[in-house]
Amino acid sequence: MTDKYTLLFYHPTMEKLAQMVAEHPDYKGRVRLGKCSWAAFNDGFPNIRVDGDDSLSMEYHDVAFLANLSKPADIFEQLAIMYALPRMRACNFRVFVPYFSTGTMERVDTFGEVATASTMARILSAIPLCKSGPSTVVVYDIHALQEQFYFADSVLVQLRSAVYLLRQKLRCLPDVADVSIAFPDDGAAKRFKARVKEFEHIICIKVREGDTRRVTVKEGNAAGRHCVILDDLVQTGGTLIECAKALLGAGAAKVSCFVTHGVFPQESWKRFLGTDAAPTPFHKVWITDTIPDTAAAVTGQGPFEVLSIAPLVGNLLTGDAPLEDL
């Protein structure tokens, strides 16, 4: 009888995260890394090969693939293996898409715009059936909940959250009794307030003053509190910085923030470091490693601290009680 375990394949950019999952003390031996070579032909198109032993053993094990869709240039080669693995008779097949990269383009405001979130969902919906039925696509803190309905019925969608990592971190703080969770807008409050019920809430909004817009506190008391801003992702960081300034202006003792996905195009994370003339308004900036390039760039920089989703991935792969619900 073959010992049951999950075989985890991964894109090369996700190797560090995959190793953390496999070596985690709670999941070691229950999750093993699949062996796969990533090469290219002379014309630049992918030349991918799954190790022979792994390809033959899949029908006895659950199989998963850890994807990184944050860069358009890396997507095609990953689709090739995502489409191939279920056809190797995997008992069960799960694709982890920690960051659903097109999520902010989920709607069309003017005729002619293309909602690429729908496009990406259609592409992922073409992942073949596995031995037990539909394959599963797992996404952490998707930008808009309605995007789950962009996927076809040919795949199952599991929406998960990394907010458990923040709650775990906050419980260890010496000033946890003084922590309030601040939302930069009503949308973030609707998405996350149920996940942080044990903390007081503050809601901020953008208000227009002439040709400019500024962030102000709409609801809640920031005075004397350690305000932790919570949102799903950050791009340039302008809104978070303005939100932090508004909270400090309302009397917050200090301000931190947590975002699951640190996108930070063109190294915009450097705005959070501050200067001697303009210090950073943040005590701590927590992000996860859903976008590995960003996680590597900010590690050890200023107020940044990276929280790994490895325990969340391992927990889901092994079928333990969901950490996010504890």
Question: How would you describe this structure to a colleague?
Answer:
This protein is α/β, with parallel strands linked by helices. The chain folds into 2 domains: 6-160 and 310-325, Rossmann fold (3-Layer(aba) Sandwich), CATH 3.40.50.2020; 163-307, Rossmann fold, CATH 3.40.50. Helices cover 24% and strands 29% of the residues. It has 9 helices and 15 strands. A 7-stranded mixed β-sheet has the order 11-10-9-12-13-14-15, sandwiched between helices. Helix 1 (15-23) packs across helix 9. The longest helix has 12 residues, at 238-249. The model has no long low-confidence stretch (mean pLDDT 93).
List the helices and strands and how they pair.
Blueprint (H helix, E strand, L loop, with lengths): L5 E5 L4 H9 L7 E3 L2 E5 L5 E5 L1 H6 L4 E5 L8 H10 L7 E6 L18 H9 L10 E6 L14 E6 L2 H9 L7 E5 L2 H7 L7 E10 L2 E8 L6 E9 L3 H12 L4 E9 L19 E7 L3 H7 L5 E4 L2 H9 L8
Parallel strand pairs: 1-2, 1-5, 5-6, 6-7, 7-8, 9-10, 9-12, 12-13, 13-14, 14-15
Antiparallel strand pairs: 3-4, 10-11
Concise synopsis of the structure shown:
By secondary structure, the chain is of the alpha/beta class. It has helices at 15-23, 52-57, 75-84, 116-124, 163-171, 186-192, 238-249, 292-298, 310-318, and strands spanning 6-10, 31-33, 36-40, 46-50, 62-66, 92-97, 135-140, 155-160, 179-183, 200-209, 212-219, 226-234, 254-262, 282-288, 304-307. The longest helix has 12 residues, at 238-249.
